[in-house]
Each structure stands twice: as C-alpha cells, then as structure tokens.
Write a structure and sequence with these properties.
It is built from three helices and eight strands; from the N terminus they run E-E-E-E-H-E-E-E-E-H-H. Helix content is about 20%, strand content about 40%. The strands form two sheets. A four-stranded antiparallel β-sheet has the order 1-2-3-4. The chain is elongated, with a radius of gyration of 23 Å. Helix 1 (about 45-60) packs antiparallel against helix 2 (about 115-125). The chain is an alpha+beta fold and about 160 residues long.
Length: about 160
C-alpha cells in the first residue's frame, strides 16, 4: 500500500502514481505537482488503462484540437479533455463524484509530440508489456538445421530483355 508505481515529468509539472490497493481491486492515487499546488485523483486500474488509451488516441491528433471523452463507472464520471492555450496542448483528466470534482492537467512535452510515450510508461509500470509478441515464429518439431537449409538457391543472371 502506498507504493509508487510510476513517476514522470511533463513541462514544469511532475506526476506520480501510487498504488493504494487494499483488497482485490487495484486503486491508484494520481498526483500532479506544480510549483504552486498539488492536485490528485483516485482512480482504479480499469479507468487508468482507459485514460492511457485515450492518451494514445489524443496523440494521433495534429494541431490545436478540442476533444473530450467520458466514461461512467459506479456513479463516478470520468472525463478526459484535450485542449490548448497559449502555452501549448494539454489533457485534463477529471473525475466527478456527486458535487465533488477533482482534475489533473497533463501538458504536452513539445508541440504535436503527444502523450503516447507517457501512456506506454504507465501501462509498463502496471506490469503489462506494451508491445506483446503477437505471433510465434518458431515451428514446433522443426529443427534449426531444417529451417536454415535453403532448398533452391536464387540465380542471379545478367541477361536483360528488351
């Protein structure tokens, strides 16, 4: 409980994700540290993975865009907004429970770079590889000698037809 899962810096802010799980479900405390304040949201693993997928989706957009995504889970409303201002593009992750609202703002590292590298880092810190091997290239029952043996060598010819 209280173990740090992930830490990253974006622009002049730093972010920390702590594991605060007690039971069978994994809960996280997502904190934003700025020079003037600290903001935090409590989020479970399913919603954190959803936020990472939205971060990847928002990274595909180029230019100054305004988009939003939302998800409702057990009475809590989670929203992710992509927006921009004079300092650059940013994502706002917001959670609403009744009348209480808390949000963190994740700025982009550089203009049109996106947030997919941060999403990959968060997913990796949850214990899941980002790029799983989709296909096995080894044929069971076939030896390396048989696989490396080339039956018909290519013929290189210098004949040119006109």
């Amino acid at each position: 409980m209280g173990d740090r899962v992930c830490f990253f810096i974006s622009s002049d802010k730093s972010f920390e994700i702590n594991d605060i799980s007690e039971g069978s479900f994994r809960w996280f405390l997502f904190k934003e540290f700025s020079s003037r304040f600290v903001s935090k949201i409590k989020i479970d693993e399913v919603i954190l993975r959803w936020v990472c997928s939205v971060m990847r989706l928002a990274s595909k957009g180029v230019g100054d865009l305004y988009r939003r995504w939302g998800r409702l889970k057990e009475g809590d409303l989670f929203r992710v907004y992509q927006n921009f201002n004079s300092y650059g593009r940013f994502l706002r992750v917001e959670t609403l429970r009744g009348q209480r609202k808390s949000a963190i703002i994740i700025p982009e590292m550089d203009y049109n770079v996106g947030w997919s590298d941060l999403a990959d880092k968060i997913i990796r810190s949850l214990g899941e590889p980002v790029n799983p091997v989709l296909r096995k290239f080894v044929t069971p029952g076939k030896s390396f000698m048989d696989a490396a043996n080339i039956q018909k060598w290519p013929v290189i010819s210098s004949q040119v037809s006109f």
